[in-house]
Design goal:
It is a single chain. This protein has one domain. It is built from three helices and two strands; from the N terminus they run ββααα. Strand 1 and strand 2 form a beta hairpin. It is elongated, with a radius of gyration of 20 Å.
Length: 89
């Protein structure tokens, strides 16, 4: 029986091949849910669905889209916000 901390559904079983041509069972944390738009709650494209320790190792351009409000608003909501700010200024 696996250790108590691995008996949770928050960890998943992954079969990995190790250098002795053996397959071992490893336990990994599940991926988090997709990043969502702050305005319409639609999943954001271009944001990796990974745990923070994996995202930390990515390049800056791979973490989020390089546009205004990239990573917080979807492109449609970003366009609406830019129009709103331009009209009020």
């Amino acid at each position: 029986m696996p250790e108590r901390r691995f008996r949770s559904t928050s960890v998943r079983k992954v079969h990995r091949r190790v250098p002795g041509s053996r397959t071992v069972l490893r336990y990994e944390r599940r991926k988090p849910s997709r990043a969502k738009c702050g305005k319409c709650s639609q999943p954001l494209p271009g944001i990796p669905r990974e745990r923070p320790y994996r995202v930390h190792g990515l390049a800056h351009t791979q973490k989020r889209p390089s546009r205004p409000f990239g990573g917080t608003l979807c492109s449609e909501c970003m366009r609406q916000e830019m129009r709103r700010r331009a009209r009020s200024a």
